[in-house]
Amino acid sequence: MSQPGVYIRKQRNRSRRHLALLLQSESADTLQVSIHPSVRIGTSVFLDHATAIVVGAFAAIGDEVTILHNVTIGRKGTDAVRAPRIGRGVYLSAGSTMLGDIEVGDFAKIGAGTLVTSDVPAGCTAVGVPARLVNCPEQKIVA
Hints:
By secondary structure, the protein is an alpha/beta fold.
């Protein structure tokens, strides 16, 4: 025979979970932004036109990042820890998609509608589907 308090606590925790899911669902429907609770987000992240932005579990977004509308950041497949890492000062244009275990370097720019599935070095611009690198800073050669 179980204690009556245990059953009440289980019911209370279940209702809190349902309330949390309801609040997340309603805010996603109203604001059209879905950011998973496990995402690490830096300071001064700017969501411009915050519409249709989806950030999946385990992603990391650095400081001073600008994210325009219709941007997707997520994993490929079911690998739990292989999520995109967005560096400091990155600019993610409208409709861009970052998928898989990739790193977008500091101060990189991702063009509108770009599909990024491989790393983008710091300071480079990625455009196209699939992404190709343009306007990368030249490496200084030390003699």
